[in-house]
Structures are given as C-alpha cells and as structure tokens.
Design brief:
By secondary structure, this protein is mostly helical. It contains 16 helices and two strands. It has two domains: 166 residues, Farnesyl Diphosphate Synthase (Orthogonal Bundle), CATH 1.10.600.10; 138 residues, Farnesyl Diphosphate Synthase.
C-alpha cells in the first residue's frame, strides 16, 4: 500500500479553519464543528480526522512553489476547504447519505433544514476568510480576483452537482457527459486551489501564465483523482478502502467504468445491465453480475488508462511553469499519492 498523502501544513490549516469558525459564533456553529470533526454530537471537544485537507495543502504548496508567503495566504487555503465542506454538507442531504467517514451526517442528526443552514454558514465564512487576504498584505486587486476565483468554483460545483443528480435515472449519459460533469463537480475546486496558491504567490507581472498552468494542473489532477476513486469504488480492496467490493455498484452509481461498459455493451448484455440498474435495491449476486459485465469489456483497464493519461497531463502542466523541479517536488509527491493510491 502506498503511503498516505503527505501532512504538509496540516496543523497550520487546521488552526486557521478553527479560528475562522470560532470568529463567527452563529446558531449552527456547533454543527460546523461537528462536521469538521472537532466536536462530538453533544458539543464535547473530540478531534477526529474527517478529511485529507487535500485542497488547502495544494493551495499552500502551489504558493510555496512560486515563492509566495504561506502565512500570508492561509485564509485563502482555509476558504477552499470551507467551500469543499459546504458542498459535502449539501451533498449528504441531496444523496440521503446517513454517514460520512463512519460518522452520522449533519442532516441525520439535526435534520435537513438545519443542515442546509449549516452548509450556507460554511459558504459565508469561506468568503469572509478570503477578505482577510487584504489584512494580510495582499493587494486589493488580488483579493478581489481571489474572491472571484472562489465564486466561479462554487458555480462550477453547483452545476456539476446538478448534472450528477440529473444523470441518476438516465441511461443515455455518455463517457463525455460524465467527464464534463466531474470536471465541474470535482476538478474545478482542485484547480482553483492550485491556481489560487500560484496567483497569490507570484508577482503581478508574471502571474497569469503560471496561474493558468497551475489551474490546468489541478484540473487534470482532479480528473485523475476522481477516476481513481471510480476504480476503487468497484474493484478496491475492502481492507484498504474500508468499503466492500462493488460498493459503488450497490449504490447504482454511474461512474466511468459503468458508463464505458454501457457504451460498449449491446443486445442482451445492455438490456441486462439496464434492467439490473433499474432495480430499487441490488443484492450481492446482482453486484457480482454487473462487475462481470464490466470485466467483459475491460472497463477497469479503460478507466486506469484514463487515470494515467490525466496524470501525465497534470505533470506536463507543472513542467510548463518553468519552475525548478525541487520547488515542484512536494506537489508532485501529493499528485503521485492521489493517482496511485489503493485506499
């Protein structure tokens, strides 16, 4: 098993996130602290690991690679993570997910109405965090542009989630449609994280080209990251992923391997595929049958080839920045961990 994602700036990011939430003590603050893993459901302090802090780490490492001041842009990194978590709180409601990271979700404990309020509060705090950049010495123009970058990422997230939900009951969704959806739902925020770090870390007269390269790096990495998730959600080792084999099939998720198989299947195989996926609940035998249909058209191999393609594109974008390799090494280490992981 590959090592876990490096813990670069874990403590600094966590401290900034906790400060951001504590500065705005609103009625749903305890829900936010619970969701972030800092309190239990009764409000007692209890730190639990609920996420990788991947996006803020990438933001800070991009800033570091471009020669910027990490402490100065910490609020931007925290804002990206807060936006990510706003989307998770709302996603759990939309997906009727009772658990996340083996803990009850916010809506399951406090109801959907209050969970919506909690997500909205997280969204608002994220934007207030970005405004701290001005106080930290970032120019007014860059602070305004950073706010715009984050807002555009939120629009992409919302569009991607809309597409994802609309695809659930359809069998005419193509691989192209799916890649477009995950570009918005998953890759856009990763791309914004790396672009923000680079933009805030570079001088005004050299930022645009490098920022564009870092955005493309994050976007390609986001695609590879999601497609690796798709593979692990079907063929992953339960001991490594914590999920049973075929977990995504049981949930009837239309991930890349499934959509590829639907495109490649015809006649009785296509009919059987659609019939099984139309059932309300799937048992173990039906999951095994679907996995067999995927294997028949080498859907797993196709998905892994896509992971490797997007990974290659991501590393090419880093190289295109012209930044010396040693400064890019921490970003490459995280990227390799993500796209080669088995957990």
């Amino acid at each position: 098993m590959l090592s876990k994602i490096p813990v670069s700036y874990q403590e600094e990011i966590t401290a900034e996130l906790q400060k951001a939430v504590s500065e705005h003590d609103v009625g749903v603050s305890s829900l936010l602290r619970y969701h972030m893993g800092w309190e239990d459901a009764s409000g007692q302090p209890k730190f639990e690991t609920t996420g990788k802090l991947l996006r803020p780490k990438l933001c800070l490492l991009a800033c570091q690679a471009t020669g910027g001041n990490i402490q100065q842009i910490l609020p931007a990194a925290a804002a990206v993570e807060l936006i990510h978590n706003f989307s998770l709180i709302h996603d759990d409601i939309e997906d009727d997910s009772p658990e996340r990271h083996h803990r009850a979700t916010v809506w399951k404990l406090w109801g959907k109405a209050q969970a919506i309020n909690a997500g909205d509060a997280m969204f608002s705090i994220a934007h207030l965090e970005v405004l701290k950049l001005r106080r930290n010495g970032i120019s007014e123009r860059k602070t305004l542009n950073a706010t715009g970058m984050l807002s555009r990422a939120c629009l992409n997230l919302c569009e991607g989630q809309h597409m994802d939900i609309s695809y659930e009951a359809r069998f005419d969704v193509t691989v192209h449609d799916y890649l477009n959806m995950i570009t918005k739902k998953t890759a856009a925020l990763l791309a914004t994280a790396t672009a923000l770090g680079a933009y805030l870390g570079t001088a005004d007269d050299e930022g645009d080209r490098i920022t564009d390269c870092f955005y493309s790096f994050g976007e390609y990495l986001g695609l590879a990251f999601q497609l690796r998730d798709d593979i692990l959600g079907i063929w992953g080792d339960e001991k490594q992923t914590g999920k049973p084999v075929g977990a995504d099939i049981k949930k009837k998720k239309k991930t890349l391997p499934v959509l590829y198989a639907l495109e490649k299947s015809s006649g009785i195989n296509r009919k059987e595929f659609e019939e099984i996926y139309s059932r309300r609940l799937l048992d173990g035998k039906e999951v095994t049958r679907i996995v067999g249909l995927l294997d028949k058209v080498n859907a797993g191999k196709y998905a892994q080839e896509k992971v490797e393609y997007y990974s290659h594109q991501a590393f090419a974008q880093l190289e295109a920045t012209g930044i010396e390799a040693a400064k890019l090494a921490p970003l490459e280490e995280i990227a390799h961990s993500l796209v080669q992981r088995d957990y």
